[in-house]
Amino acid sequence: MLPERLDAEYVGEDSARHRPVMLHRAILGSFERFLGILIEQYAGRFPLWLAPVQVVVASIVSDAAPYAEEVVAALRACGLEARADTRNEKINAKVREHSLAHVPILAVVGRREAEQRSVALRRLGSDAQQVVSLEEAVALLAREAEAPDVRRLAGV
Prior knowledge:
This protein is of the alpha/beta class. It has helices at 2-6, 27-42, 65-77, 91-100, 111-116, 134-144, 150-154; strands spanning 10-11, 17-18, 55-59, 82-85, 105-109, 118-123, 129-133. The mean pLDDT is 90.
């Protein structure tokens, strides 16, 4: 139908005008449009279950870097996409950077958290922190990151 709607023609080897045959597949195009709609809907602030980077573990001091890597390993072990930020930067700069990148959860660790085996969880868009044990944080975030049952949401 599209060649007719476009009034598309070409001149063949016989010097006559012919209507072309057009094959159209939009599998990737549809997928890309769907992703564009999702990004627009969430304004880049994806829910935890959909975010490409779900948690960034930021160390306050360099002494806490090994503990930050341990926290990342524990989060990855339960299926979360976690990254460590152990750069020698001020924590406010790290918070700002990862907030602008729309990372849903920032887990902050320092000397005290390393000694107590805890993490301070900070959610995107909130200044409040929730200090919990490492085990509790892993369980909480793993539960929260579970993808919703689409059939239930659709009422099927």
